[in-house]
Write a structure and sequence with these properties.
The chain has a five-stranded parallel β-sheet with strand order 3-2-1-4-5, with helices on both faces. Strand 1, helix 1 and strand 2 form a beta-alpha-beta unit. Helix 4 packs across helix 6. The protein has a single domain, classed as 3-Layer(aba) Sandwich (Rossmann fold). The chain contains six helices and five strands; from the N terminus they run βαβααβαβααβ. By secondary structure, it is of the alpha/beta class. The longest helix is centred in the middle third of the chain and has 27 residues. Helix content is 51%, strand content 20%.
């Protein structure tokens, strides 16, 4: 069946539920996990108030700390406790959905497991989730945890 599952996470509560589900699935089928987090590159023109207040180096350091914290929490407290082999990847890329797809391919993953907010109607069309974009563009199967 599946041998390597990519689980993208941003450290949010919703993503953590998908992480837990992915770990349970990997353990049940004997797969390993590639956890990944993706961050946006620094932009001079942005609406993100934190980026406006930071230099490029400060932004990169803050993002690196956040990515390391997110990934180490996932690995240290969840995957290792479950006895599931895993490794982590941090990618700085835009758009995020493409970073997820590219990471899955680069790490020879045969399944992507990720969370969805489950938005419907106009909000789904206007906001457009990364999950929907991954579903639309990925050639690798995607398991969505709601």
């Amino acid at each position: 069946m599946y041998k390597n599952i990519l689980i993208p996470t941003d450290g949010s509560e919703l993503a953590n539920k998908a992480v837990e589900h992915g770990i349970t699935l990997a353990k049940a089928i004997g797969a390993k996990i590639t956890f990944m987090t993706a961050t946006l590159p620094f932009h001079v023109f942005t609406l993100d108030s934190q980026v406006v207040e930071e230099t490029s180096d400060q932004y990169k350091e803050r993002i690196k700390r956040h990515a390391n914290s997110t990934l180490s929490t996932v690995v240290a407290t969840k995957a290792k406790a479950a006895g599931v082999p895993c490794h982590t990847v941090h990618v700085e890329h835009e758009p995020i959905y493409q970073a997820i797809i590219d990471s899955a391919k680069a790490n020879d993953c045969d399944l992507i497991t990720m969370a969805s907010h489950g938005r419907r109607g106009v909000s789904a069309l206007v906001l457009g989730s990364e999950t929907v974009k991954v579903l639309t563009h990925s050639t690798i199967p995607v398991l969505v945890h709601r």
